[in-house]
UniProtKB/TrEMBL annotation:
One MF annotation (Gene Ontology) recorded for this entry: G protein-coupled peptide receptor activity
Family to which this protein belongs: Belongs to the G-protein coupled receptor 2 family.
Span of domain G-protein coupled receptors family 2 profile: 23-103, 117-368
Taxonomic classification: Eukaryota, Metazoa, Spiralia, Lophotrochozoa, Mollusca
Assigned keywords, A-Z: Cell membrane, G-protein coupled receptor, Membrane, Receptor, Transducer, Transmembrane, Transmembrane helix
Main location: membrane
GO-annotated biological processes: adenylate cyclase-modulating G protein-coupled receptor signaling pathway; cell surface receptor signaling pathway
Gene Ontology cellular component terms for the protein in this record: plasma membrane
Residue intervals passing through the bilayer: 118-142, 154-174, 194-215, 227-249, 272-293, 313-332, 344-367
Descriptive protein name: Calcitonin receptor
InterPro entries per UniProt: GPCR_2, GPCR_2-like_7TM, GPCR_2_extracell_dom_sf, GPCR_2_extracellular_dom, GPCR_2_secretin-like
Subcellular location: Cell membrane
Membrane topology category: Multi-pass membrane protein
Amino acid sequence: MPHGQLSIINDDLESDIRRMRFVCNVTVLSQAPPTDGLYCPAEFDGWTCLNYTKAGTTGHAKCPIFFETDELAHRYCESNGTWQIHPDSGSPWTNLTACHNNKTRPSTDVEHHMFTDIYLFLAGAALSMVLLILSLIIFFGFRQLRCDRITIHKNLFISYFFSALTWSIYYKAVVLDGEVVLTNPGWCRVLNLIAQYFSTTNFSWMFCEGLYLHFILARALRTGKKLIKCLIIAGWTIPFILTVIYGVVRNAQVLPLVLSSNRCWSFDDDSLYIISVPIMVSTLTNICMLINIVRLLMTKLRQIPDVNQSRKAAKAILILVPLFGMQWLLFPVRPEQDSVLHDIYVHFAAVIISIQGTLVSIIFCFCNGEVRSLIRRKWHEHRLMNSKRRPPGITSTTYIDGYSIVDSTREVTYLRSKNNTEPHNKPTENIEFKCTPHVFTPLVEKDGNQKKTDLKFSEIEDV
């Protein structure tokens, strides 16, 4: 399933809980109850294993593993042979006050391994959020970047940012805090639902990116403001509807305390298919669109003799992989538990999930030729305008990507070369313009005598 922020990151924790349940079944639950009086039943509550406890006394159990303590949790057995009920939750309640003390022993290898993937995710998510913020500042800051293609990029970047932010808060405030998971307050489930929503928007906007690019290249639909508005509405509202349905269904489930409907929804259950199935459909659709785009690209490349055709085709495909969410196909099936491949799968998935924002910000912003040109031009303009000492009557010219910036004692004038392919040391005929033009960097480079291609391959290279 491609929708795996929670199931993958918590996979080690879930594996350890299954192991603890197995041990509890063998050592306690499989034993016959005592016959010398009234006892509360033995129980595994999802974290602790409670033995048969005589009525009117207190039962003890080891604290959950993530508390890193040798203290004991306890639960009171009522005189009628039932476990004490918590007044707020209405369910049997294990007192973990002693577990909240400072940890009394170092972490074991199992405990360290259990949270390694969460820490990997938090580190990668922090890097992604920083780069996404910088990318959004660039996209919103340059007037020249206000176009339909960049508008879709902005929405994709915003969804990645809030996905990384909400999941980071959830893991830090909920999963790494055993008390919150055990008490299962309502706010932690709401936080989980918000994080699930932004994860779903990641895939919806990857689908919108692929759909827009496919329309551009295949000319299947004339692009315009109506298309962009439809994509914006669909990209944010469809995930919202799916997430609301998922939240209602999961919250309505009446399941035992040990199952996944509790514990702040920290484990996946079958209701997640409400979200996962549409995501799988959108991913498969993206695969089909990617194949068609590559077909169109290869067809056009064959028409233009170029020794670098293979390199350019490979570059385009690599650019489209994170845009279309194809990285999820690297591990289509989760390996079996307690295997080397499973550990590799979990670590790899934790890294890939957390650095998705990093990948898209680097590829579609910092490696974008148009963005780099604008930043360089802005930097040189800043240096020229803030130069403190400039000898009068001396003019210096700096060439940037086929443009010349002329610095005089009174003004800065932008001049564009008539033929950008000529060496900069040759005389050129310059034409003055007042605003920065669109920098066209086609994927398929054209010689001066060749006709202009029909497909806008710049939408791929400068995507």
